Amino acid sequence: MSLDPVESTRGLLNRPAQLRHGFLDVLGAATSAPVPTVAQHAMNSPLVARVYERLWRPTAFYLASGLTQRAEQIRAASALRLSSTHRLLDVACGPGNFTAPLAAELPEDGLAVGFDISESMLTRAVADNSGPRTCYVRGDARLLPFGDDIFDAVCCFGALYLMPEPFGVKGEMVRVLKPGGRIAILTSYAPHVAPLRQLMTASARGIGLTMFDGHEFVDLFTAAGLIVIEQQTRRAVQFVVAAKPGTSD
């Protein structure tokens, strides 16, 4: 018989958490997510949370990458090798639009933890994308509330370009990943063609988004000691997957 996902997740946390609105909150009711940019303000809006999964996210990323959300989910499950994964962390999970489908790919005793700072998004995740293998946690991705080497797979899809310290978040994702585990990110990509790159970068900066070079995350993963690094770029999006060396590597 599988354990309750909330209690299983509570056992993974390295700090106290209050159960609020169905998710575990390590920040507390009085702590608000920072909203210094237009984009970050939108991600904390209850209205955006209501339309994000079915309208905003599928439309925006199809235009940016040419891939449907279902095609993205299938690619993610394959890259993360979820059929043999027991603990998955989905960083900046939003309303759980990837957390729940990926949880369905885990073994019967698997656990998918969706992590976000937005109360609005997590409230929607609990309402729309809960299940026997899912739990949601509110916290700051710059300091993930987990010990080292906890998760078999870690991912962040469509959020790093929103964050004020994306490379620090990357470091935290690597830290909580077990040796032998896999990490995958989906984020922005600025083509090398100078005029197009300048236009995209300036437009994104205006609403608080970051356009990343094609080499930045590959270089960072390499510097962090990750191996088997693969990158796919398509239009304005890049998908990067890598593995953390195991004890036998």
From TrEMBL:
UniProt keyword annotations, A-Z: Methyltransferase, Transferase
Residues covered by the Methyltransferase domain: 89-181
A Pfam family reported for this protein in Swiss-Prot or TrEMBL: Methyltransf_25
Signal peptide, first to last residue: none
GO molecular function, one term: methyltransferase activity
Xref: InterPro entries: Methyltransf_25, SAM-dependent_MTases_sf
PANTHER family in UniProt: 2-METHOXY-6-POLYPRENYL-1,4-BENZOQUINOL METHYLASE, MITOCHONDRIAL, METHYLTRANSFERASE
The name this protein goes by in its record: SAM-dependent methyltransferase
Native organism: Mycobacterium sherrisii
